[in-house]
Amino acid sequence: MSEFKENLIKDLTPEIEKTSRSWYMIFGFFLVIFAYGINGLVQQIDKGHIVTGMRDNVVWGVYIVNFIFFMGLSYAGALVSGALHLFKTPWRAPVIRLAELITVISLAIGPFFIFFCVGRLDRLPYLLAFPRIQSPIVWDVIAILTDVFGCFIFLYISFLEDFAILRDRADLNVAPWKKKMFRILAIGYTGTEKQRKILGFARNVMAAMIIAIAIIVYSVLAWIFGVTLRPGWHSTIFGPYFVIAAIFSGVGLLIILMAIFRKIYNLEKYITLKHFVNLGIVLFVIAAFFGYFTFSDYLTKWYGSVKMDKILIDKLFTEFNLFFIFANYIGILTPIIIIAIPKLRTIRNITIAAVIALVALWVNRYIIIVPTLETPFLPIQETRPDWTNYSPTWVEWALTAAGIAVFGMLFMIISKLAPIISISEMEEAEEKRILELSKEKES
Amino acid sequence: MNMKDKKKESSSRRRFLRNIGLGIGSAAIVSAPALASNGGDDDAGEKVKVLTSDGKLVEVSKSAIKVAREETKVQILESQKGLPHRKFVMVIDLAKCKNARKCVDACQEGHMLPKDHEWIQIYLLQDSDKSAKYWFPRPCYHCDSPLCVSVCPVGATYKREDGIVIVNSKRCIGCKFCMTACPYSARVFHWKDPEAHVPEDHVYDPELNVPPVEGTVGKCVFCADRLRNNELPRCVKACPMGVIYFGDLAEDAVTNGVETLRFSSLMVDKHGYRYMEELGTMPSVYYLPPVNRTYPVELGFEDLDPAISERYKTQTITGEKNK
């Protein structure tokens, strides 16, 4: 075994072998938030949706925003990891696994927000029992189910080699059940020429497929809004706009997770400034596209001044003005400025830009959903303030926080079961580097 | 139950109804337990009193009684088809409406709705700040190109042959997609337990849509249960001003219970229109413009519950706050 691989395994396996006290503390903290969310859910099931801020005009609120947001992260993870793999990006090795994990973990959380939003949770199986293909929600059910299978397969085959490596290490100091798990999950992979060929082929096919699936699935989600006649939603740009927005948030989250794991798992040697800058440039390009789409969507609406569009835009520029400025100016310009000026490109700055981009995108979702629903064609003639204007209640916030907590917990658990950086990818990258070096020497 | 059995049952039912000369559905008024216990017994001599749909009390022999609409499943299937060879249409004469709100009350009572659920809602509208205000009752428009039906993922809401759009509260999963798809805000959601007190022997029927179910969507159903009995919808009957006309496009006639008019000439003479025709939803509800008004608009504020009166101070033109 090469010295490089030996060192790599030595650096990565301690996190699998033992669990620190702070890990338990953070996990416990997430668990408390999760329990708080469950408490909110119990209240909602017991008393009805009246405990949420949703009412007859704004029938969808923070739950739908979270749904779009988490699904967007998932699709972005798929797009990024698929593209990194398919285009054989040379620097991808230490970060591709994080992107794959974002995909699967967000995908496991997103649909729950739809469940919270549905009035009759007990009738959810009707979606499969009596589907009507005319409905964009049924398109979405089909799309998400396809995506779940695709992403899990992609994630699994990318883990396969690492499971085999961990299985073969006799000196690995882990619980017997973990060893057993590695043995089962490695399904007899030993790295023969034939196996490597098949696995490589499968990964290429799956990478191409999940890129296509991610684009289709997120467009379908956008069309749930696009097909209605509502001002602000009834827009042809929504499909591509949502896809771009998804990548924007996904790259942002990837950068944040890189910063977190780099610090707490001591991966400074592997995840370097180069990775932050490279992904920062991706964020820069996507931010530019995202800003362009946002601008052209609002410009045409504002200039044309169809009555309903005008009312909506007036609302965005007055009542929702601060949200609008944060989501569409600060959220887009900050990453562009920080990446554009080479002096500002530090790990800390890029991470800050990513945090702003991520939060701004959530707010962007909010001002796509809520103001439109507050602007029906017939005037809202209502004296109850909660019927006219939406404001989320503690139940909705509790479940939102619970969603984030589950995201954290799942990441923490997986990081204890398998290395957070792909050993096989790193090894392959190293081999390539050595090969190129020797070629240079020869010539 | 296969198709053959169903046919047999419905034809025997028709024969029975013809024999005793009652309107369809009258048998449903007979209480269910009495029928269940005596259905097949050979006690032809015994007579029972039955209330007909037009209010007469008649006596029929017990053995001749068959339940016309006995189980929910049949009713739901029946409710999906609609009445054959009919195309229902409503005309609302805005010149006559004075916001008496009798239609709202009758609707809420008939469908056992909570007070804040208005399947027919009365707006105070103004087309521009230079033009006059007018009262604008808005039921469900039962569109011929209904977006709410297209987007429903489980087929809980459907368009029938006779033009009516119905919600089946037993199927609805409460995703509220139909509420975002409807441009007329015609749909309402049961955010909490509606607490309707339904008689124990009541059988659910989407045409009446009682009892309301928590976590599902409700809306005006054109009183399809009444139409089946050849009766006018509750709001039409309740309106003291004769604002709402109801009828059948196939017969080209509409009535408000007092006068019956030819639909096609009414549309031409009084310049009927449909609300937001440009959306392409093709509503089945037509309006007559608020010209030569019977009552001044202010009369609508008389004897009005202050809580309701308050709501008309918010906005009469979408997006513009009242001064």
Written account of the structure:
The complex is a heterodimer of chains A (443) and B (323). Chain A has one domain (3-377, 389-433): Formate dehydrogenase/DMSO reductase domain (Formate dehydrogenase/DMSO reductase fold). Chain A is built from 17 helices and no strands. Chain A has helices at 3-12, 14-17, 21-47, 62-86, 96-117, 126-129, 136-168, 176-185, 193-226, 238-264, 273-304, 307-317, 321-340, 347-373, 385-388, 394-417, 423-442. The longest helix of chain A is centred in the middle third of the chain and has 34 residues, at 193-226. The two termini of chain A are 27 Å apart. The model of chain A has no long low-confidence stretch (mean pLDDT 91). Chain B has 323 residues and is an alpha+beta fold. Chain B has two domains: 3-70, no CATH class; 76-311, Alpha-Beta Plaits, CATH 3.30.70.20. Chain B has ten helices and 13 strands. In chain B, a hairpin with a 6-residue loop joins strand 4 and strand 5 (133-138).
> Termini separation of chain A (Å)?
27 Å
Provide the domain count of chain B.
Answer: 2
Q: How much of the sequence of chain A is in beta strands?
A: under 5%
Q: How many beta-strand segments of chain B?
A: 13
Q: Which oligomeric state applies? A: heterodimer
Strand order of the largest sheet of chain B: 12-11-10-3-13
Instruction: Estimate the global geometry of chain A from the Cα principal axes.
Output: globular
How many domains, in number, for the residues of chain A?
Answer: 1
Radius of gyration of chain B: 21 Å
Secondary structure class of chain B reads: alpha+beta
Count the helices of chain A. How many?
17
CATH class of chain A: Mainly Alpha
SSE class of chain A: mainly alpha
List the helices and strands and how they pair.
The complex is a heterodimer of chains A (443) and B (323).
Chain A: H1 3-12, H2 14-17, H3 21-47, H4 62-86, H5 96-117, H6 126-129, H7 136-168, H8 176-185, H9 193-226, H10 238-264, H11 273-304, H12 307-317, H13 321-340, H14 347-373, H15 385-388, H16 394-417, H17 423-442
Helix pairs in contact in A: 1-17, 3-16, 4-5, 4-9, 4-10, 4-14, 5-7, 5-16, 7-8, 7-9, 9-10, 10-11, 10-14, 11-13, 11-14, 13-14
Chain B: H1 3-20, H2 32-38, E1 47-51, E2 57-61, H3 72-81, E3 88-93, H4 102-110, E4 121-126, E5 133-138, H5 147-151, E6 157-159, E7 165-167, H6 177-181, E8 188-189, E9 217-218, H7 224-228, H8 234-238, E10 244-248, E11 253-255, E12 260-262, H9 263-269, E13 285-288, H10 306-311
Parallel strand pairs in B: 3-13
Antiparallel strand pairs in B: 1-2, 3-10, 4-5, 6-7, 8-9, 10-11, 11-12
